[in-house]
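Forgive a beginner's question, but might I ask you for the amino acids of a protein and the tokens describing how it folds?
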Amino acid sequence: MSASLRNASLRQLAFLAAGFVTLVCVALLTLSSLREWGLRHEALKSAEVDLANVAQSLVQHADDSFELADSLLIGLVHRLETDGIGPGAVQRLKDDIDLRKGTMGRVRALFVYDAAGRWLATTEPVNPALFNNSDREYFQQHRASPDKGLLIGSPIRSRSGGQWVITASRRFDHPDGSFAGVVLATIDASYFSSFYRRFDLGSTGTVTLLDKSGIILARSVDNESSVGRDVSSTPLIQDMDARRPAGLYYFRSPFDQTLRLSYYRLSHRFPLLILATEAKDEVLAPWRQEAMVRMALVLGLVTLIAGTGIYLVRQLLKGQRIAAVLAANEADFRLLAEESSDMVMRIGLDERIIYVSPSCIRLLGWSAAQLRGTHALAGVNAEDLPHVRQTVRALKQGEVEETRLVYRTRQREGGEIWLETALRATRDPETGKVNGVVAISRDMTAQKDLEQKLATLAIKDGLTGVANRRHFDDTLQQEWRRAGRDGTPVSLLMMDVDNFKKFNDQYGHQAGDSCLRTVAKAIAAEARRPGDLAARYGGEEFVLLLPNTDEVGCALVAERIRQSLETLNLAHALNPPTKRVTLSIGGATSWPNAETHGNHPSLIAAADRALYVAKHEGRDRFVMSGQVVAWRGAESA
């Protein structure tokens, strides 16, 4: 008993000593880490403020540049619309443009084109008769749109000089308002690039001017290869409408794959965006160098304290390790004893089976001798294998101690069963490192089969086998939202078996049920695409949901359903004049959008009204909502 008390005292003393040493080391490391984290945050904050100031200045510079170009264009438009483009007026315009050459500042050149794209005048030293700009995108936009506002176009190669230029243009009209031509001002992309290089953003810092759609207009580095590049797929451009006009943005550059700290700012006057960036690593480089020196000193102190503590408690920890061995063995054997009715496996770090309980023959069909030494994951279903393998890897690496999985695995007879497996990592008592995994498995096949049957019953109509009303309502809501996002139509057919009560009275309810199953099968046959859904709406009423289908397609499907019933020729003596089973069909088509979000009941109501008209007009016919009768049965026509 005294030995037991001594061992207990030694263990307690070891725990206290280890705890004290650990607490001191952790406290030193924590305080040092918090201080370094604060200094790191200050370094980033300082860079963020600098980038914000640069972006603000450069947006103002871009605004001033295009405002200067626009003022020149406005003057030309006013003169052209006042004087016209007669020979005399054009000559005076040329003389006036020549006088402007030395006063345009950052604007490189001015151009005037007539309605056919011919050059009427330019500040460039070229023969205007040699060129035609009717193929340029900005010219075609002005010709197609009566808007006379300023248009900042995508960068293009100048026909007169061959360099990249950014275009700013306006349309001018004849006195009757018809299109007369375009006036154009160009600014060299290299002008902005050279200007941006004046700002010191480090060796890898960049400034980029883009239009709001994501086309690069100018860049401080690699300007010639970057201008005109489309970066609209980046998160910054895609989410721009939801972002503030200015803000911080961390991203990985599509040019050099470098993680960058950036600040973006939108122009309030033009569809322009300035993005000023610095490489995050370069911003943090000075802090990182100083932090390494400081942390080296702290780690040296921590190592000294930890080494002293380890020496003092080393002998005491031997007793603790012995106790850990006994506890681990006891836990393993208790686990095997408590779960002996299930299959128990011990798996090594190489994922091979070290031990498996005899119950494996009942679950898998293989004996323990046949499974021992084989790979534990060999029979796992290919779809479930990645998740199972990831979980086992996490256990082996000590990331988790225990977990539970449900997956499919192969039986000896060739079929598959569902297993629920509890997994627990085991550790070496000497080193404390993970040395394997214990798995306890039970058969979950019956429960999974029941879950699948219940799921099927929840969405299927018990009589006809098509979807039920609840499943139809859920699917309609989903397809309505999808159509609203994609800008596609949604069509709906509502169908009612004509004089079905009389059919039941004449032939009996069993024959009525058979009739409904036959009609449902004919309707379901027209649900040919994955998104189409046939459903029983209630009683003898059915619906067919047709996503991405317009009015014409809706009518074609309805006609095929009618022809199917005509071919089946089901007798219905009390349904004159055809004396066979027929349908009244109402159709409706809608184009959902943001304003009609969640308003899919209007589609049902429209189809229902069309169905009512079809029945009122004599049944056995199809009526499209908002239209005249599209077709009626041949025998009742």
